[in-house]
Design brief:
The chain is about 30% helix and about 25% strand. The chain is α/β, with parallel strands linked by helices. Helix 1 runs parallel beside helix 3. GO terms for molecular function: hydrolase activity, acting on carbon-nitrogen (but not peptide) bonds, in linear amides.
């Protein structure tokens, strides 16, 4: 089976209205280009400057106007539309970084809350605690796309192979990676991480990215891309241009790649002894 898919590259700002207008135009362009599944980037609806800015514009899940509008887009264009992520206000004052998959009828087929949050102490910089703003999810999600089983991830998740392997073992054929990578980390790691996730799972990977200089002053790496199960980049955007990236994916390539390198089938459980136990075994 061959399926045309599209990754939307965007440069989202701090207000939902213009971002949703931009999304609508890009979805129309992708559907006109024949796409049956369309993925937008992380923080499509609002790319806020800080937590306070997010609090001003991010609503709760129930009655969320952005969700209603994207649902209407999916139904209007009769496409599986995957909103890469939006911030959803939670009762504890934090937010969920939530991905939402819509059917061509506008129904919500699946949601996924980003599991892995970036909490780090960066040399020469202040501590960065994503968990102070967002609450991490606690479940992996496999969904039904248009004739394809879809694994849901978001941005920083790409650094955690176990999530992707679990999705592949559960039946994923296409893994979605909506993202907003910074330029330095994108230059260093974006391509190699995405290709590695495709190779080790034998899945297609579609990565829709934020790109360019945003109204909040942030710069993102772009390079939205689609990768086949052998790790080949079959479609890629540049680091600035807004627009869709298309690929026709043949699901037969999944069995072919996994047949050549049956890593999922050959995987085994193992133990890692503690140091004292290892010493006892050696003696």
């Amino acid at each position: 089976m061959t399926l045309r898919i599209a990754a939307l590259q965007m440069c989202s700002g701090t207000e939902p209205g213009p971002n949703l207008d931009a999304l609508e135009a890009l979805v129309a362009e992708a559907v006109a280009g024949g796409a049956r599944y369309v993925l937008s980037p992380e923080v499509t609806v609002v790319f806020a400057e800080n937590r306070e800015g997010l609090a001003d514009v991010a609503g709760p899940w129930e009655g969320n106007p952005a969700i209603a509008r994207v649902s209407a887009m999916a139904a209007r264009h009769k496409v599986h539309l995957h909103l890469g992520s939006l911030a959803v206000a939670l009762p504890d004052g934090r937010f969920a970084n939530r991905s939402v998959l819509f059917s061509p009828e506008g129904e919500i087929l699946a949601t996924y809350d980003k599991v892995h949050l970036f909490d780090a102490t960066l040399p020469g910089l202040k501590n960065y605690r994503e968990s102070e703003t967002y609450r991490g999810g606690d479940r992996a999600v496999l969904a039904e796309g248009p004739g394809v089983k879809l694994g849901l991830t978001i941005c920083y998740d790409v650094r955690f192979p176990r999530l992707h392997r679990s999705l592949a073992e559960a039946g994923a054929q296409l893994i979605a990676v909506p993202a907003a990578f910074t330029v330095p980390t994108g230059e260093a790691h974006w391509h190699v991480l995405l290709r590695a996730r495709a190779i080790e799972t034998g899945c297609f990977v579609i990565a829709a990215a934020q790109a360019g200089t945003h109204p909040n002053g942030r710069r993102t790496y772009g390079h939205s891309m689609i990768i086949d199960p052998w790790g080949r980049v079959v479609a890629e955007a540049d680091g600035e241009t807004v627009g869709p990236v298309f690929a026709d994916i043949d699901l037969a390539a999944i069995d072919e790649a996994r047949g050549k390198v049956p890593a999922l089938e050959n995987a085994r459980d193992f133990i890692l002894p503690t140091a004292p136990e290892a010493e006892r075994q050696a003696s």
